[in-house]
């Protein structure tokens, strides 16, 4: 079975296709891990799942992998291009993901491990703090240069 999941912050829409591309079932469930696990346990053994890359989809991807399922992450822009549809609904998106997976045309995207993803987030946060720190220092220097009282050199950028 081929399963396409359109994941959002609040809920997910899933479509299950057989080998001939016929819809076996569809489901809508909350994006919380309990509901996801309960739904995923009902899938037939050997099912392959596809998600469109997003922040929410990463969490779902990791959870489904923990459950021992074969999960693939799809590149969103390439999915749009290959699907060739302008309509964008949850049902259509989940069907397209499952169908691309079935036809072995799913454009896969890289998914970092949870540990690597956490490190990347920390690095992004550190870079952002550095930018904000430089901005604040430059504003202080700008205020000083405009004729405000002098601050010690240790406060200069």
Q: Which blocks of ≥5 consecutive residues have pLDDT under 50?
A: none
Q: Give the H and E element order.
A: EEEHEHEHHH
Please give the count of helices: 5
Report on the biggest sheet.
Answer: 5 strands, mixed
Count of strand segments: 5
> What best-fitting shape do the alpha-carbon axes yield?
elongated
CATH topology name of the largest domain, in short, is: Nucleotidyltransferase, domain 5
Going by helix content, strand content and strand pairing, the class is alpha/beta
Strand order of the largest sheet: 3-2-1-4-5
Integer tally of domains:
2
Tell me the span between the first and last alpha carbons. 60 Å
Q: How does CATH name the architecture of the largest domain? A: 2-Layer Sandwich
Mean pLDDT: 86
User: Which homologous superfamily in CATH is the superfamily of the largest domain?
Assistant: ATPase, nucleotide binding domain
Name the beta content range: 15-25%
Description:
It is a single chain. With 157 residues, the protein is an alpha/beta fold. The chain folds into 2 domains: 2-102, ATPase, nucleotide binding domain (Nucleotidyltransferase, domain 5, 2-Layer Sandwich), CATH 3.30.420; 114-155, no CATH class. Helix content is 47%, strand content 20%. The chain is built from 5 helices and 5 strands, in the order E-E-E-H-E-H-E-H-H-H. The chain has helices at residues 33-41, 55-66, 76-83, 90-102, 114-145, and strands at residues 2-7, 11-17, 23-30, 48-52, 70-74. The protein has a 5-stranded mixed beta sheet. It is elongated and about 75 Å long. The mean pLDDT is 86.
């Amino acid at each position: 079975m081929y399963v396409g999941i359109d994941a959002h912050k609040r809920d997910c829409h899933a479509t299950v296709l057989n080998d001939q591309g016929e819809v076996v079932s569809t489901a809508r469930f909350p994006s919380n891990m309990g509901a996801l696990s309960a739904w995923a346990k009902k899938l037939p053994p050997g099912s392959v799942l596809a998600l469109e890359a997003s922040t929410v989809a990463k969490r779902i991807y990791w959870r489904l992998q923990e459950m021992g399922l074969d999960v693939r992450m799809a590149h969103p822009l390439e999915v749009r291009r290959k699907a060739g549809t302008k309509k964008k609904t949850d049902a259509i998106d989940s069907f397209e993901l499952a169908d691309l997976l079935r036809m072995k045309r799913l454009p896969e995207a890289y998914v970092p491990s949870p540990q690597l993803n956490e490190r990347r987030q920390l690095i992004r946060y550190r870079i952002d703090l550095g930018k904000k720190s430089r901005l604040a220092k430059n504003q202080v220097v700008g205020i000083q240069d405009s004729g405000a009282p002098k601050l010690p050199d240790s406060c200069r950028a």
